[in-house]
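Hey, resending since the last one bounced:
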Amino acid sequence: MGIFNRTRDIIAANFNELLDKADDPSKMIRMIILEMEETLVEVRASAARTIADQKEMHRHTVKLDQLQADWADKAQLALSKDREDLARAALVEKKKAADMADQLKTEITVLDDALRAYEIDIEKLQTRLREARSRQTAIAARLESAENRVKLRTLLASERVDEAMSRFDQLERRVDYAEGRADALSLADGTKQPSLADEIAALAGQDKIDEELEEMKRALQAQNSSVSPSQDKKED
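The structure tokens again:
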């Protein structure tokens, strides 16, 4: 009965209450899982022994049934020879074999009930074990997350972060200076080939210059045209 009581206690256990009362939930859940695994092994071993006992009883019942048939034949033979005393004695032995067979069959029925109980308990234990392992995974993940948050907040509160950011600023200034030098060298390089954008911009600028030049020419021609008639009158 000890294994049954232990199994029932584990199946009825309240994981949440156990974990709430535990100083170290992760350690407690490991202990629960270990206890359940050990109990599951014991229950399966007990079930295996019960199955073995049941098979042995079945073999005995077959032998007892055969024994009853043998004593019945002997009683029939004795009676045919007018030996009623021997026939009676044979029937007594037949009844003994029948009583033993009935007792074994009753015990087999009890073992059948025990096996069904084992099967139910094993299924419940496996379900609880899966639940416990799932809780273990969740607790481990939460614990890791909490530890990482503590490390992160500790790091952010440390002066080392400020020092690192200051160094990043210094590196950025050095990069800016290097880029400035490179840009300055490219400005001083007269052999630098113009880019496509520069060439297109130059064409646009040239068009504006040509338009302005044509406009100046037209203005000059208009001015010359207005001056020429007056000069002719003076010469006359």
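Residues 227 and 233 are 11 Å apart (CA to CA).

Sorry for the duplicate.
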